[in-house]
Amino acid sequence: MTVEGGLDEPEELEPAQGSLDLADPADTWTVADWEREAAAVLRKSKRLTDEDADERVWAKLTRRTLDGIDVTPLGTPDQLIGLETSGRPTRQGDWDVRSYVDGRDAKAANEESLVDLDGGVTSLWLRVDADTDLAGLLDRVLLDLAPVVLDGADPQAFAQYVEGRELHPETNLGVPATEATAEVAKQAQRLEIRGFVVDATRVHDRGASDAQELGWSMAAAAAYLRTLTEAGLGVDEAASLVEFRYAVTDEQFPSIAKLRAARRLWARVLEMSGGAGEMRLHAVTSRPMMSKYDPWVNMLRTTVAAFAAGVGGADSVTVLPFDSPLGRPDAFGRRIARNTSHLLIDESHVAHVADPAGGSYAVEKLTDDLARAAWEVLGRLDDGGSLDTEIEATVAERERQVATRKRPITGLTEFPNLDETLPERPASDDWDDVRSYGASFEALRDEPATTAVHLATIGTVAQHTARATFASNLLAAGGIAVTQEAARVVCLAGTDAAYDEQGAEVAAELRSNGAEWVIVAGKPRDWADDSCAMGVDALDFLTRTREKLA
Description:
Largest sheet: 8 strands, parallel
Oligomer: single chain
Number of domains: 3
Distance between the termini: 58 Å
CATH class of the largest domain: Alpha Beta
Number of strands: 15
């Protein structure tokens, strides 16, 4: 199947029957009014000058994704002009709460699975291998009520184990779609379950962007359809046997748009293949976005990601435990993970509104932009291209943004705690193939500097606190502690006025007391050897500083 042409034309949106006009007739606010108020805030924070036009707020507040797609601060009706795609999430009601369990230790995994199921989990995603004791792993698991999605299993061994038992129809043999065979398809049909998974988290874990992840998944799915239709299955028949798996991150709106775009793309692929049908979509909170340092922050990241998954229309949502980067999660981590979905569903009622993001100008525009970008990736792959170079370029750009702290990672690149004691967890290889977004900083923290930097200040506490705090946090991000005692490397913090008046003299005094390398917190000065300020390449600066400390 060759990808040609574009995506679907957007369908006309009809107003809902009995809809209410929620606008206040007295509300006469315009975009210009918003620009004026937003500009006033930016001027207070010195991000705009008095001479800048109010409309400059768009350039200041619009951010660009790694796919080059603009995410605007405000949605406006004109963003719906020229959209090429349409479609809505198909999930109605609560999503399936799916827990991830490493099932290779059958006894431990069975205990974890039963606790999760008793705690409200509704399906299991089980990592296994050819030697896994399925009987021990699935002991007392009611397979007719709780679907299990396998990862790494021998389909034949599972089929033999469940012979004669009733299975939930969303049970999945979990064979990668790229390895699909007619034999596995027939086996799944005989068991009346699904057989295959398009697991796009595999490229996400390598560092792929959203469009690259979507494009790869559609290429894999198209190849899957080719394989099974050539083996005699119909397009709809093959489509009914597969489930898609995507990662969702704490970038809320791009994650919502990614899942909505995935459905539109799959619908288009099926249409071009002469078929139709719905998409079974499993969302997993991103592994690379999580950090092993200050792991408690992972609870916040996964909550935002799970919210995005629910709003984006995922059929199943897996929240990975906050302590997963440290090893095999404990009971507390697993409980927090499953309860995240319960709070969103039962307390926040996020699942009780069908497609809550639908109709949002900004989300509709972002969904369309992402779908079109992914379609271009699919076209390149279908022409025989490879994503390897593109992913490496994405990784390099992301690392540049992390290094300059334009993409902050709380607890790692921002507000690090050098004195924290990390929870101890049993070793696990689940993270071996994951390219963590903060990997470079984690490597520095893994081997902290053995010598501290002398933090010297000029002026009153009120005068030097801002820069002293900035410098201390920046150094801590590289595993470097600060001290008030004399040391070979010194970081001087104060105001620009204090630097002009006393900087050279203070630096000379520090050198006479043994300082060999003087850093100034702020813009470069001719009397300092190095400097650190907002926008600095933190990774490069920290590496230089550690070399001087060594």
